[in-house]
Amino acid sequence: MSLNSLKASTDRGRAGDKIFSGISLAAGVLILAVLFSVAVFLMVQAAPILSADPAEVTGGEGFAAYILPIVIGTIVAAAIALIIATPVGIAVALFISHYAPRRLARAFGYVIDLLAAIPSVIYGAWGYIILAPQLAKGYAWLAENLGWIPLFAGPASQTGKTMFTAGVVLAVMVIPIITSLSREIFLQTPNLHEEAALAMGATRWEMVRMAVLPFARPGIISATMLGLGRALGETMAVALVLSPGALGASLIKTGNQTIAAEIALNFPEAFGLRLNELIAAGLVLFVITLIVNMIARFIITRHKEFSGAN
Amino acid sequence: MAANQTLQRRQSQLTRGRLPSYAIWVVVAASLILGAAISSLVGFSVVGWAIITAIVFVLAATIVTAVAEGERKAKDKLVTFLVYGAFLIALIPLVSVLWTVLERGVPGLSYNFLFTSMNGVTGAVDNQAVEGGTPVLGGAYHAVLGTLQITLWATLISVPIGLLTAVYLVEYGAGKNLTKAITFFVDVMTGIPSIVAGLFAAALFTLLFGPGTRTGFVAAVALSVLMIPVVVRSTEEMLKIVPNELREAAYALGVRKWRTITKVVIPTAISGIASGVTLSIARVIGETAPILVTAGFASSINWNVFSGWMSTLPTFIYYQILTPTSPTSPDPSTQRAWAAALLLILMVMLLNLVARFVAQIFAPKTSR
C-alpha cells in the first residue's frame, strides 16, 4: 500500500468521523428543540385566548373561570389515584423484592409489568362497562349511610360513572409505575445493612423498616411523583369513565371534569376560539406535569449522586 | 410432671415460644367458617365471603401471634399479610381486564371483522343484525391498517433520532453539560401527557398547513414525541453496558471512531436496542388521545398517511363505545369494540414477548 492511498483513506475516515459525530449531536439537539417547540407552539396557539372577549370563552366568564374547575378536577382525580396506588404499589414492590419466594419474584415482576402494558383505552372500556356498575352499588350504600360527609353526598350516580371510579381506574394504571420504580430502589439496598439488621435479631419487618425504607425514601418519593405525573395527564380512562359536569365536592355524584378528558372529548369537534381554548388548557396541563416530573427527576438525580448504589 | 419435662426437653432453644407450623392452618380454617357465618348474616356472596374471611384471618392471626409470640412477631406477621394482600389486590384488575376482554372479544373476532371496514355500516344495518339475529357486519380492517401505518411512520421518525442521540450521549458527550441537559429533558419528556404530545403535533401542523390539518402523519409525529425518549433511554442503557475493551481493541487496530461505533459497539448491543425499540412500539401502539386530536376518525380504508383522516384500533374502540353506530341498539358496536380490544391486547402482548425473546436469544455473550 503506497503512502498516498493510506493518506486518502485516512482523509475519508476523518470526514466520516466528523459527519457521524455531527449528526448524532444534531439528533441530541433536535430533542431539546422538540421539547422547547412543544412549549412554544402550544403558547402561540393558546395566546388568542388571553386577549379574547371573556364572554366568548366557554362559560362566558373568561379563561380563568373556565380552567380553574377542571384544574381542581384533575388534581382531585390524581389525588384519589395516588391515595390508593401509593400504599399498594409500595407493598407490591416490597413483595417482589423482599417477600416473594426468590424463584417466583421475577415472574411476579413480569406480571405487574403486564399491567403497565395494557393500553389505557382498554382500561377505560373496562372501567366503563365492568367497574362502574360494580362500584355504583357501593355508592348507593355510601350516600345512604355516610351522606352527611360532603365527599359522599347523594344522590349517588346510578351508572357509577363518577370521579371516584375514575380515580380507581387511574390508580390501577399508576400502580405498575410506582411498583417498578420502588422495586428497583429496594433491590439496591446494601445487602450488608439488611444482613446486619437480621443478625441483630430484627424481624423481617423491622429489617425493612430500619434498612430498606430509609435507604429507599427518595426513590419512593420520586416514584410517587412520576405516578402523579401519569395520573394528571391520563386521558382515556377519565374520558370514558367519568360523565362530566360542573365542579362539586361529592365524589360519588355525576360531575367534575379533568383537563385531559375535557380536551379529548371536545377537541375533535372544536373550531375557532374553542380550539385555542383547548390548546391553552393543554398548555396548563403541560406546565403542571412538567413541574411535577422535574421535581421527581431532580430528586432521583440528586439521590443517585451520593447513594453510591449505581 | 414427668410428661411435662419430656415435652420441654424436646423443644429446641431456637423454636421455643413459637407457634407450631400447623397453627396458621387452624386460623385459616376458623376464619373460613367465621367468614361464612358473618357473610350469610349480611346476605351470602362468594366475594363477600372472601373479603370477610381475609379480614378475619389477618386480625385473628395477628392476635394469636401477639398472644403466643409477642408484639414484635405479631407486627412482622401483620405486615407480611398486608404485603401479600397488596399483591393479590393488584392482580384483581389485571385478571378482570384480561378475562373481560377475552370473554367479550372472542365472539366478535371473525374473518369478517378482521377484513372489512366500517364503510357503509350504518345504524340501520346494526338494528337489522340485532332484530334478525344475523351476524354483525363491519369490522376494524381500516383501523388495523391505520394503526400499522401510523406506528410504522412513528418508528421511522423516532428510531434514527433516538439511536443517534443515545450514541451522542454515550460515545461523544460523556461529561458535557449538553449531555446532562439532554438526559434530564429526555427523562422529563417521558412524563409528557400523551394528549399534550397530540396537541403539539396538531398546533405545529396548524401553523404550517392551516387549521384543521388532520392526517395520519400528524399522528405519527405526535407518537414520535412519546416514542423518542423511550428509545433514547433503552438504547443508552444498552450502549453503556458494551465493554470498553471492545472499543479499545478497535481503536488499537487503527479503526476510526465512527467505524468502531457502527461496526463494533452497535452490533454488540443490537439485541438490547431492538428489544427496546419493540417495547417502545408496544407503548405507542395503544395510545388513543394523541390520535384523537391529530388523525380524526374515519370509517373507511385510507392508505395515504399524508392526506385524509385515519382511524386506529384505540380510537375505533373509543368511538364504538362512546358513540355506538346505532344509538338504539349499541350491542353490535360494543361487540366490535371488545373484539378490537382483544386484537389490540394481542398485538401489545406479542410485541412484549418478541422484545423479551429478542433480548434473551440474541444477547451478546459476555464473560460475566
TrEMBL record, chain B:
Domain of life: Bacteria
One GO molecular-function entry: phosphate transmembrane transporter activity
Signal peptide range: none
UniProt domain ABC transmembrane type-1: residue ranges: 144-355
TM spans (from-to): 21-41, 47-67, 79-102, 150-170, 182-209, 215-232, 337-359
GO biological process, one term: phosphate ion transmembrane transport
Keyword Mitochondrion: no
InterPro entries: MetI-like, MetI-like_sf, Phosphate_PstA, Phosphate_transprt_permease
A GO term from the CC aspect: plasma membrane
Role played: Part of the binding-protein-dependent transport system for phosphate; probably responsible for the translocation of the substrate across the membrane.
Protein name as annotated: Phosphate transport system permease protein PstA
Gene name in the database record: pstA
